[in-house]
């Protein structure tokens, strides 16, 4: 049962820069998909088209019965409620505490006024603490986010998206700013969320080895076009070089 | 290992960047001097006479502007009252324009603008208000309100509003853009993003700008008062015109003391909130 479908999607920025050309794929519920490709190949644009932070120029996107491209303001809010998002730079409100940032995940579910004054129900707070416990952040709950390390901030980002009770989580370079050991912690959490909670995950990654290790499916993108779409064990070395438009020996993965 | 370094490869047929940089600085320096000489010739300004008269000016003001025993009663009679009024007016003006500037800047930022046209319009309006000097505003508004505190109020209001709107727009774009994106992505609506994202993340920086504007406005209010005939500026002008230099000097000293006190306080506040 596909949860997300791209049908011939194209995106052109300012009528000149072509970011995506005729992208089509469909993702089933519960999949763990990694999108790889060089910088500027359109990875972030694909993710942002799904929750309408970016509007696709052509084609159709179906997410969970919603016609994303033609959604009105109210429908966009419904879509965004069900789609969590995690960012390379965490994008937290740094001056607020961890628990407040986690509760921000509920804003989409609240009325304008109770969102403005920040009134959260007891069950919501309870749920927030449960999520924090699961991610090992109980100690940090009342700390301000600017006191946290990068790995902890990213876990707060994950907690915030889980708070939405999403069907799909989009991860835009979730480990690009983290060291190898924290990267593993974050990837393990994401993988765990995918397996135990059945939440579909789509990740943009620069680390090909990480993508091959964790993802159940790889989408390779080169200058806005899909070059590879399939399981990691069928991704040939030559295809990786095709994705990154490189020759043998020019990639960091070749060294290892 | 021997130390005879072989010459490293450099791009051929090209003046080195170091020489180019040096030449640029020399030309710039010579250019500034040329402009200085040319402009003083055109304006008939003699630097030698100007510099020579500095000691004379200092001695003159030091002998004349020393408060004497007959000027002290002005302190309690008028100066403190007027200074208090001027200071409060500056705080009120800054607070008032900060509220308007915040609401306006939300329409002007890249992250929260409602549509690009309004965003552009807000920036233009803010620049317009900011780029007309406050003294010019006073002269214009003087026609409408006359010798009234409103003249100074609106003059300061317009300039502060324009400046704060511009700085608020830049501050919000710089500090809040990332968390605004995340909150939008989670389905929060406009007002929720403003109150849960923008205000908590950028409030401290915005308040810091407001404090800075309070300091500036207290200084400017003095000057504006001289023109519009209100507040401490009125009294300073009046003392000067009635050749009461002692009281004028006393007025200056109290202004300086107040400004320094405000500066120290706002530095403390800034340190606490940032």
Could you characterize what this model shows?
The complex is a heterodimer of chains A (256) and B (274). Chain A has helices at 43-50, 73-82, 98-103, 112-116, 122-134, 150-163, 180-197, 208-214, 237-243, 252-255, and strands at 2-13, 17-28, 32-36, 58-63, 66-67, 83-86, 168-172, 200-205, 217-222, 225-230. With 256 residues, chain A is of the alpha/beta class. Chain A has ten helices and ten strands. Chain A has a domain at 2-89 and 166-255: P-loop containing nucleotide triphosphate hydrolases (Rossmann fold, 3-Layer(aba) Sandwich). Chain A is globular. Chain B has a single domain, classed as MetI-like (MetI-like fold), CATH 1.10.3720. In chain B, 82% of the residues lie in helices and 0% in strands. Chain B contains nine helices and no strands. In chain B, helix 8 (231-241) runs antiparallel to helix 9.
What are the key terms here?
heterodimer; A: 256 residues; alpha/beta; Rossmann fold; six-stranded mixed beta sheet; four-stranded antiparallel beta sheet; 10 strands; globular; B: 274 residues; mainly alpha; MetI-like fold; 9 helices; 0% strand
């Amino acid at each position: 049962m596909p949860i997300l479908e791209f049908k011939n999607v194209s995106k052109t920025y300012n009528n000149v820069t072509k970011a995506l050309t005729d992208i089509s794929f469909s993702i089933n519920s519960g999949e763990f998909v990694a999108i790889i490709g060089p910088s500027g190949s359109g990875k972030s644009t694909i993710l942002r088209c799904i929750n309408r932070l970016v509007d696709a120029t052509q084609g159709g996107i179906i997410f969970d019965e919603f016609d994303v491209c033609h959604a009105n303001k109210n429908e966009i809010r419904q879509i965004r409620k069900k789609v969590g998002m995690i960012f390379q730079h965490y994008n937290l409100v740094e001056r607020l505490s961890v628990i407040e940032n986690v509760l921000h995940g509920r804003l989409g579910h609240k009325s304008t006024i109770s969102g403005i004054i920040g009134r959260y129900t007891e069950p919501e707070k309870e749920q927030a603490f449960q999520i924090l416990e699961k991610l090992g952040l109980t100690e940090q709950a009342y700390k301000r986010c600017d006191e946290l390390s990068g790995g902890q901030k990213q876990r707060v980002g994950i907690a915030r998206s889980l708070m939405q009770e999403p069907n799909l989580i989009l991860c835009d370079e979730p480990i690009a700013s983290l060291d190898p050991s924290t990267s593993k912690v974050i990837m393990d959490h994401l993988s765990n969320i995918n397996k135990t909670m059945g939440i579909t995950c789509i990740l943009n990654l620069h680390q090909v080895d990480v993508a091959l290790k964790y993802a159940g499916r790889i989408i390779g993108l080169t200058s806005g076009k899909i070059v590879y779409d399939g399981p990691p064990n069928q991704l040939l070395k030559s295809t990786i070089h095709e994705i990154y438009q490189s020759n043998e020996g020019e990639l960091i993965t070749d060294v290892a | 290992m021997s130390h005879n370094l072989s010459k490293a490869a450099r791009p051929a047929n090209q003046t080195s960047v170091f020489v180019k940089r040096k030449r640029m600085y020399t030309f710039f320096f010579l250019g500034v001097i040329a402009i200085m000489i040319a402009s003083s010739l055109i304006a008939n300004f003699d630097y030698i006479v100007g510099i020579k008269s500095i000691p004379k000016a200092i001695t003159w003001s030091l002998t004349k502007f020393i408060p004497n025993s007959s000027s002290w009663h002005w302190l309690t009679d008028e100066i403190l009252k007027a200074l208090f009024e001027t200071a409060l007016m500056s705080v009120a003006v800054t607070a008032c324009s900060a509220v308007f500037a915040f609401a306006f800047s939300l329409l002007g930022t890249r992250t929260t603008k409602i549509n690009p046209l309004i965003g552009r319009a807000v920036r233009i309006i803010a620049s317009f208000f900011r780029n007309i000097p406050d003294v010019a505003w006073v002269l214009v508004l003087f026609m409408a309100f006359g010798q009234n505190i409103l003249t100074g109020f609106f003059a300061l209001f317009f300039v502060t509003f324009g400046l704060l709107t511009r700085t608020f727009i830049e501050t919000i774009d710089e500090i809040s853009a990332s968390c605004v994106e995340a909150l939008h992505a989670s389905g929060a609506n406009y007002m929720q993003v403003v109150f849960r994202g923008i205000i908590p993340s950028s409030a401290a920086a915005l308040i810091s700008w407001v404090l800075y504007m309070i300091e500036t406005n207290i200084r400017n209010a003095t000057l504006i008062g001289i023109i519009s005939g209100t507040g401490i500026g009125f009294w300073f002008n009046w003392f000067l015109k009635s050749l009461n230099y002692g009281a004028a000097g006393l007025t200056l000293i109290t202004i300086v003391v107040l400004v320094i006190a405000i500066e120290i306080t706002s530095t403390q506040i800034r340190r606490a909130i940032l």
